[in-house]
Amino acid sequence: MTERKRYATIDEYISTFPSQIRDVLERIRQTIQKAVPEATETISYDMPTFDLNGEHLVFFAGWKQHISLYPLPAGDEAFQQRILPYKEERSTLRFPLARPIPYDLVEQVATFLMKERSAKG
């Protein structure tokens, strides 16, 4: 059985991808940082992760054909309609690399997740 690569930082994770995917991953990272500036970066489940108040808030991952973002907030009805083209099972958004990445939607996901976390206390 082959041992999986373990990453120490988001920079290390992103560096393993081809340049086009690296650029998208870096922009997603910056978008999340902008939406939730108090979140801290880490790696969890071998994926870039942003933590808020010591708990995982949002994860993202690069793949050959798409970028994934986890988990999904409940949001509102307009948000639920907007994510339909990207929604996958298990609370995942999948953004195909062949299409423009909706960075504003990435920001909205992070913002909703932060608000939902704050509402829980």
Structural summary, described in words:
With 121 residues, the protein is α+β, with helices and mostly antiparallel strands. It has one domain: Aspartate Aminotransferase, domain 1 (Alpha-Beta Complex), CATH 3.90.1150.200. The chain is 40% helix and 26% strand. It has four helices and six strands. The protein has a six-stranded antiparallel sheet with strand order 1-2-3-4-6-5.
State the helicity in percent bands: 25-40%
Report the total helices. 4
Number of strands: 6
Might you state the CATH topology name? Aspartate Aminotransferase, domain 1
- End-to-end CA span: 42 Å
User: Which class in CATH terms?
Assistant: Alpha Beta
The outline comes out as globular
Question: What is the residue-mean pLDDT, rounded to a whole number?
Answer: 93
**Total of domains:** 1
Proportion of residues in β-strands = 25-35%
Major sheet summary line: 6 strands, antiparallel
CATH architecture: Alpha-Beta Complex
Rg over alpha carbons? 14 Å
Strand order of the largest sheet: 1-2-3-4-6-5
Give the SSE order as H and E letters. Answer: HHEEEEHEEH
Which blocks of ≥5 consecutive residues have pLDDT under 50? none
Based on helices, strands and strand pairing, what is the structural class? alpha+beta
Summarize the structure.
The protein contains 4 helices and 6 strands.
